[in-house]
Design brief:
Layout: E1 2-6, E2 11-17, E3 25-29, E4 32-36, E5 40-46, E6 50-52, E7 55-60, E8 66-77, H1 81-91, H2 96-115, H3 120-125, H4 127-143, E9 147-158, H5 163-351, H6 353-372, H7 388-410, H8 418-427
Antiparallel strand pairs: 1-4, 2-3, 2-5, 6-8, 7-8, 8-9
Subunit structure: Heterooligomeric complex of flotillin-1 and flotillin-2 and caveolin-1 and caveolin-2. Interacts with ECPAS.
Domain Band: 87-269
Main location: membrane
Length: 428
């Protein structure tokens, strides 16, 4: 008896052995196979893509420049029966990493040998051609192992002496120069072409504008002619219409005037009758009562006039009497005051200095009151002096100035009065 084994499309099944010492081998992928117990052996091998990253460090090129190159390769075991049998013969029983190591060493060897035959510029500037060359050289060797190179690309190329960067700077400068020259030439050509296009455009525009202007002028002339003719006809028709309308209006107005004359005559007759009626009515209702009222008012006015005349005469008499009485009073008061002044003068003359002294003494309180009036608003007066004799001297000075103030106010010289003169001398 035996078992039925199945495999997916990413894996191959190898059934070996059989009855009577058979060396028949069966290769199956994406299917099934029968294996006998004890006398058949089954093994599997992966058909999946394997990614390799071959790397060659410090490999000298044809010019002796040491480069480090890194590539990426996609490989897998081929499914053709003969090639699958070769791959199974060499890799059956090994894991995927062992298969990768074998293929990787092969690719790195070919990569190193090809690097030695090329220049740096060939490797750096045309990587696709370099990768194609590596793939073409390595494909036969790995093909004899039943391995197929699906793709091979150069991932990175660099060196440790800045050869590539210097080469890139030179190439960049050249490319930049060529680009600037190309841009300048393109801008020049574009400017020339743009100017030519603008000139052509302006020529076409001027021609089109000229034709448009000619057409517009012809149109306006024709339109003006048509408008003039239409306006003439319209004016004639309008004038005829207005003339006829004026005639009709004149007839209508004449008829209306005649009607108004008739109506006016009737209205005048009616108004005459109405005036007579209103006149009679006014005489009966207004004029006669008004005349009576006017007569009454006239009588009242005359009585009021007499009354006002009599009142005015009485008031004048009253004022005259009051004036005479007041004049008599003023005259009597004047005579009394004159008599009093006469007697006071005689007394002053009789008593001499004593009378003058009395007059001054009567006047002094009034003078003192007027002098002291501003001091009524002062709450307190403080005389600052460190010497009591100085306060006394200030008081004496004020008293000494008093006669001069009285003389200035009244005209009386107190210093000529014997009593005051004596007192002043004693003060000094």
């Amino acid at each position: 008896m035996g078992n039925c084994h199945t495999v997916g499309p990413n894996e191959a099944l190898v059934v070996s052995g059989g009855c009577c010492g058979s060396d028949y081998k069966q290769y199956v992928f994406g299917g099934w196979a029968w294996a006998w117990w004890c006398i058949s052996d089954t093994q599997r091998i992966s058909l999946e893509i394997m990614t390799l990253q071959p790397r060659c460090e410090d490999v000298e090129t044809a010019e002796g420049v040491a480069l480090t190159v890194t590539g990426v390769a996609q490989v897998k075991i081929m499914t053709e029966k003969e090639l699958l049998a070769v791959a199974c013969e060499q890799f059956l029983g090994k894991n995927v990493q062992d298969i990768k190591n074998v293929v990787l060493q092969t690719l790195e060897g070919h990569l190193r040998s090809i690097l030695g035959t090329l220049t740096v510029e060939q490797i750096y500037q045309d990587r696709d051609q370099f990768a194609k060359l590596v793939r073409e050289v390595a494909a036969p060797d790995v093909g004899r192992m039943g391995i197929e190179i699906l793709s091979f690309t150069i991932k990175d190329v660099y060196d440790k002496v800045d050869y590539l960067s210097s080469l890139g700077k030179t190439q960049t400068a050249v490319v930049q120069r060529d680009a600037d020259i190309g841009v300048a030439e393109a801008e020049r050509d574009a400017g020339i072409r743009e100017a030519e296009c603008k000139k052509e455009m302006l020529d076409v525009k001027f021609m089109a504008d000229t034709k448009i202007a000619d057409s517009k002028r012809a149109f306006e002339l024709q339109k003006s002619a048509f408008s003039e003719e239409v306006n003439i006809k319209t004016a004639e028709a309008q004038l005829a219409y207005e003339l006829q309308g004026a005639r009709e209006q004149q007839k209508i107005r004449q008829e209306e005037i005649e009607i108004e004359i008739v109506q006016r005559k009737k209205q005048i007759a009616v108004e005459a009758q109405e005036i007579l009626r209103v006149d009679k009515e006014l005489i009966a209702t207004v004029r006669r009562p008004a005349e009576a009222e006017a007569h009454r008012i006239q009588q009242i006015a005359e009585g009021e006039k007499v009354k006002q005349v009599l009142l005015a005469q009485a008031e004048a008499e009253k004022i005259r009497k009051i004036g005479e009485a007041e004049a008599a009073v003023i005259e009597a008061m004047g005579k009394a005051e004159a008599e009093r002044m006469k007697l006071k003068a005689e007394a002053y003359q009789k008593y001499g200095d004593a009378a003058k002294m009395a007059l001054v003494l009567e006047t002094l309180p009034e003078i003192a009151a007027k002098i002291a009036a501003p001091l009524t608003k002062v709450d307190e007066i403080v005389i600052l002096s460190g010497d009591n004799s100085k306060v006394t001297s200030e008081v004496n000075r004020l008293l000494a100035e008093l006669p001069a103030s009285v003389h200035a106010l009244t005209g009386v010289d107190l210093t000529q009065i014997p009593l005051i003169k004596k007192a002043t001398s004693a003060q000094v």
